[in-house]
Input
Amino acid sequence: MEMESLPNGNSAAAAAAVAAAAAAAAAVAPSSKLNQLAESLKLEHQFLRVPFEHFKKSIRANHRIVEKEMSAVISGVADAANADFSRDEAVHHLNSLVSRLQGLKRKLEEGSRTEHLQAQKCRARLDHLESADADNLSDWNNMRLKRILVDYMLRMSYYDTAMKLVESSNLQDLVDVEVFHEAKRVIDALQNKEVAPALAWCAENKSRLKKSKSKFEFQLRLQEFIELVRAENNLRAITYARKYLAPWGSTHMKELQRVMATLAFKSNTECATYKVLFEPKQWDYLVDQFKQEFCRLYGMTLEPLLNIYLQAGLSALKTPYCYQDDCTKEDPLSQDSFRKLALPLPYSKQHHSKLVCYITKELMDTENPPMVLPNGYVYSTKALEEMARKNNGQITCPRTGFVCNSSALVKAYIS
Amino acid sequence: MELGNIKDTFDRVAKKQKLSSSKSQEVIDQVGHEIENALAKLQGDPASPVDQKSILVELQTKLSIIGSQSQLEGSQKELNINLSKYTKLLEKSFNPDISKAYRNVDFDFHTVNQIIACHFYRQGLFDIGECLTNESGEPEDTALKSHFLEMFQILEAMKARDLEPALNWVSINREKLKQNGSNLELKLHRLQFVEILQKGGRADALNYARTYLAPFASLHMDEIQKLMACLLWAGRLDSSPYSELMVPSLWEKLAEELTRQFCSLMGQSYESPLSVAIAAGIEGLPTLLKLANVMAAKKQEWHAMKQLPVPVDLGREFQFHSIFVCPVSRDQGSEENPPMLMPCGHVLCKQSIMKLSKSSTRTFKCPYCPAESSVGQCMQLYF
Output
């Protein structure tokens, strides 16, 4: 079926032509699309790392349980051998050790099941990355967009929306809901001025935090100390400091001294150095610090993936023409919300001319060179040939109405 | 990046983990077994005397032998080695920190939330969009939502082979569709005609044609003639020369065209702008990360730049604007510095031409061919 009137720059018909061109381009150069796909897979570190860290954590926890229980049992036997037990006492003692071992076996079996599930999740993710190819590219990309959206919503604590999206698209294996829940527990507590879950988290991850020389636990202890001082529980504060702050003295003496000095002030002190320590903002710093430590441990980015990709995309798309009124609607930057986000971002740069025909929206390159009308307006050869064919060789500029013959067209050479 | 290699490395990790796990179970069983033995000896014959101390000491010795012989530590060590190997492999094969290119500018999450909600409406995920507006507390874009709701209702009906809503919409928007150069209405009537022919028979189809297809007769005579000829094959259209009017993909194509026209009339793009922006980001991020690395190494300022210093190559589908880059100065064309066509057909930006001519009257040579021209002979181009 043929199109009647001249399509203008914004018509959906031209958009259809663009889609056809894009599809043709995709079919003609599949290797470049596959190259791009391979490059984009390299961005998926978080995707593979998070379930793996989870897996490692379970393994470590199970190892620790085995070590602890086994050494308890063996020393239990040693104690019995050294003590002077009666027969009944010996039997009783050994029975308790047996039941302890049985408890350990049960825990290990459960731990094994968890580890197995986590290993499966790691494998499922590897399989998912491998499954991307030229045939299912648009579906795979759709899934990626959904994964990115779920990551955003979990970080923003929009849990219901996240779960709805996960369930509607079967993303369960491909997203890390439990990890974010784990973080939320600690963050909520910190926002409620409770350090207990945060300290428990530090205990769980002690060795790794130590390896990265993290002082997060120290900062939690400092805050608890300050809260004791705020409540004017000075004696308890000092006992607390002796037990929990002193061990950090060797590495963080200055900070320790500064906080200890709060003992000399009241919580409503006007002295600037110490006033800041009593402010509720300190709890916000703790939340930020926790998020950083948490993300680092799990191999996650601190920022939502959505923001990272969106910033990159907006900057790559941003040209001065996007902010003009006649910007084509197909450009995301024609929308106010996108324009707002892109304002502080740098413009994209081109080293070579890239020209788009106003009529067909196709690229004007050596296969479809630009032709110039006598009034200076430029359109693609294909568009003008089509126009001439339908109008007896007559060309009408769609933007100015200028009329000429197709013989008056001049080719422009643009590299 | 060899995914096969990564998978193999992970399989090795999983194997070592299972090994370590079974070793643990083995040792626990051995220890348990010895304790059970000792218990049996202690409880053996209630009448005869028993030296509990020596039994316990024997047990202790046996356990320490198990402890020293056990390969428990060894298997755990192996496992740990493989775990760290895999971690290193991941860090090597993938980019461990893609946030290096992120700029700490004001990225208003309210705007982002609204963008995401609109994206959900576009995809037909209305309940998820509503859930997001609720959880995020953002104001709802009711206008946009109701437009897309209408569109999806029409599309759902079409999926169920009901063309009524579509035909309604098309007749309401007849003028605008004509302006767009679309003959969607004719196509829909044609499809409806074929449907009626399949189900109702000749009489109904003829009636339908008289009412709805007649107005198109003047402009699309050949199509109408084809459809009239179909009447001859009522009930066995699939064996007629017009069998292509029955393929199911026709419905999908028409649904797509309706979506395009609907979005166009709404002043919206066909593709979700969020999808397009993210796709551009995925394509462009590797280049930006390399750039960020290079600039960090040279201690250059990443955050305050007005323009990216290198081009980020995106696919054709992301080219929305004509960008002219002068081959001589590498400046981008603008209002103040537009592209100028020289008589030889080559194009330079105005400033380059002014520089080459050094005055408005002298002629200059084109950098690309021996042709000479003067400033007056150059014409401003509008892409």
Remarks:
- The longest strand of chain B covers residues 339-341.
- The mean pLDDT of chain B is 88.
- Chain B has 14 helices and five strands.
- The radius of gyration of chain B is 38 Å.
